Amino acid sequence: MQPNQLRPFFGFSVAIVAVVLFLGSCGKARQTSNFNPDKFDSLVFASRSVPHTVDSLLQAGAIGRIGADFYRVNYWSDYNDTLAMAIADTALNRKIENDDDRYFHYMIAGMSYQLDYISGHYERGLRRTRQFLDSVDPDFVASHSKLRSNHLMLNSILGYYNIYLYRFDEAEAQFKKTTDLIAKYEADAQGDSLDLALYAYMRIRLATSAMIAYANMKQDQLAMKWLEVGETYLNDYVQKNGETSAAQSTSYKLLMMKALFLNRMGRADEAALAYQQAIKNPYYKSQIGRLNSVDYLLESHHYEEALKNIDNIEDILRYQKKEWNIDNIAGFVSLRFKAYLGAGRRDSALAIATRIIYALDSARVWEKRDKAAELATVYDTKDKEAQIAEKETSLLQTRITALLVALALFSVFFIVYSVLRRRAAKLKAAQDRIEGELQIARDIQMSMVPHEFPHREGLDMYASMTPAKEVGGDLYGYVVRGNMLYFAVGDVSGKGVPASLFMAQATRLFRTMANQGLMPAEICKHMNAELGGEDNVNGMFVTMWIGMLNMDNGHLYFCNAGHNPPVIGGGANHGDFLQMESNAPIGLWPDLEYVGEEIDTIKNRPLFVYTDGLNEAEDPQQVQFSDDRLLEILRNTHFDTAQQVIEALAAQVAEHRNGAEANDDLTMLCLRVS
User: Which of 399, 455, 321 is nearest to 50 (CA)?
Assistant: First the structure.
């Protein structure tokens, strides 16, 4: 199911896969060798830092490179699909030397081809999955519970690929082959209750995912057929295993889909009855449960009820740490627009349309950042030229899709605006709209800086940014590459909207350059060339302090581009301003060379980086906070955590201002490595 298509099964495929993997990990692995595929799972997945644990196991020789790749792909698939796919592609080209490698190679293939499906690469996924399944040894697959689950999943996905490529007969034949394979595994299970429960869930997943794929291709009759098959499988599961919470949520989602299909077929009364049955299910009370009802409510013109169930959609996306990408904008946020428009609440519809259009800028930033990270990984693979060409083609397709979505949203915006422009004549309405847009811009700007920080043993890092106006020009960010942590703090000249736009461009450039593994001075040089060209007609610039920290030994490379000197702890004075080379700010002169510096180690020495909104904060009498006071507070503040240091300073600044309005943006970043 694709993110910009049917909503009622939002999260369903992930939930079913989680149950399948859980049951598969608990089941008995009838092994034909001494290899135990579960021996490292609990150790790796229970660790605070999966990449660090995997690196340690690899260095100790406990696992091979393909095994390490498996855990890395598994980890990154939760955060960055494109990076996970690039790692998987590299792993699948490695030489298989033993049974461990053979097992992990098969599991990586399953994850890789599933990522093809999730990201909509249907033709490539069909070709790769079919070739892989034709080459596997069925006896080896049958020897491990997780391999059997993976094998069934790949066979199912082959059917879904055929649906999305309009090959419905081939899809039905593949589903028949998959159900026959499930029956064979059930016969081999010899009454093992965990294995039997696993295969029952695989049947349910096959039916419901086929239903969703057919529905997305507007094949409602075939979708309804598989919905009924899914109901049969679910009833059989409940009779044998009881009314589990997973069965309860699946029952709810099937009823909601039935309501949607019946309504599309003109059977509104039956659809309403199915809907009433669904909302009696306890799952309806959950946030995702209410979200699953929205498609039916919109199609049946129950707009007010749809609004009630989707009103907190952006809170859900924020809680789940969803990025502002094209899929989330077109698939989720636009549902609120449709509900407001259908309910006749055109002012709210206009506000949502405006929010969507502004969010496209942030979405493009995320798209470019992710593609840059993916290309950087692909440069390390064996066939890098061919893969880079493929990724660049994918990037072009993404840009075309984004452009089409943007044009459609702009069209909707102007249609709604034409209806409401007479109301915009009054000064109060115009003022309210401007304030709303500035708030949107503030939200988008705040979404561009990270609010979660690296979870790595020995590293404590925290940062905060407080704009003085609705939007500002300060920035901070970080990028993790292996054991290297890139981090930066910057301050754009000026304030307001122009500064925020320049800030967005500087943030994007820093992430792109850091993902390429450049040294801090090189990053400053390339950013200066980009930002200081002829297009910078307003002469804007940004001061930045960029660091590159080896999180293992504490070695720090850095470059200061006209920024305030950071404070580094330790020493005889328990903290001093860092003595640095003088470099010009970024953006003034495009041909500058920047001087980088380094410190052998900063282990157990807190580093505090900030913008001048801290030391130049003014009280009502315009007395500044001052460098001396900053240094005195840091020298006398016991370091418990990085967050505690920043919150203590924020409280001191607020006390100093004594109610005076902030005269500049305030950004602080603190870290310590031990």
Answer: 455
**Nearest C-alpha neighbor of 663 from the set 630, 626, 622:** 622
Q: What is the pTM of this model?
A: 0.48
Q: Which of 333, 257, 330, 331 is nearest to 299 (CA)?
A: 257
Torsion angles phi and psi, residue 544, rounded to 5: -145, 150
**SS3 label, residue 62:** coil
**Residue 561, domain CATH:** 3.60.40.10
Is residue 474 within 8 Å of 467, Cβ to Cβ?
yes
The full 3-state SS of 496-530, as one line of letters, equals HHHHHHHHHHHHHHHHHHHHCCCCHHHHHHHHHHH
243-250: Cβ within 8 A, 24+ apart: 246/15, 246/16, 246/19, 246/201, 248/281, 248/282, 248/283, 249/15, 249/283, 249/289, 250/12, 250/16, 250/204, 250/208
Q: Are residues 432 and 492 in the same domain?
A: no
Q: Do both 618 and 483 map to the same domain?
A: yes
d(CA 231, CA 128): 32
**474 and 420 inside one domain:** no
The residue to which tokens 């820093």 are assigned? 510
Quick: pLDDT tens for 422-451: 665 555 555 555 555 455 555 555 666 788
> Is the dihedral angle over the CA atoms 607, 609, 614, 616 positive or is it negative?
positive
Whether the CB-CB separation of 117 and 78 falls below 8 Å is answered with no
SS3 258: helix
At 342 the three-state DSSP class reads helix
The parent domain of residue 552 ranges over 451-673
Q: Is 496 found in the same domain as 432?
A: no
Task: Quickly tell me which residue has 């979200």 as its tokens.
Answer: 291
Tell me the CA distances in angstroms from 570 to 44, 399, 636, 652, one per residue in order.
35, 49, 12, 22
281 φ/ψ angles, rounded to the nearest 5 degrees: -75, 135
Largest CA distance in the chain: 84
The edge-to-edge listing of strands for the beta sheet with 459-466 is 459-466, 666-673, 607-610, 567-568, 576-577
Q: What percent of the chain has pLDDT over 90?
A: 22
Whether 6 is covered by a domain: the verdict is no
Report pLDDT digits (tens) over 210-247.
988 888 888 888 988 999 998 888 888 888 877 788 88
**Cα–Cα distance, 166 to 422 (Å, whole number):** 47
- The verdict on 538 and 473 lying in the same domain is yes
Residues 627 and 513 placed together within one structural domain of the fold: yes
Which residues, in sequence order, are bridge partners of residue 547? 487, 558
Domain count, the chain: 2
pLDDT, tens digit, for every residue of 622-635?
999 999 999 999 99
Shared domain for 417 and 460, answered yes or no, is: no
Q: 488 and 635: one domain?
A: yes
Total number of residues shown for the chain: 674
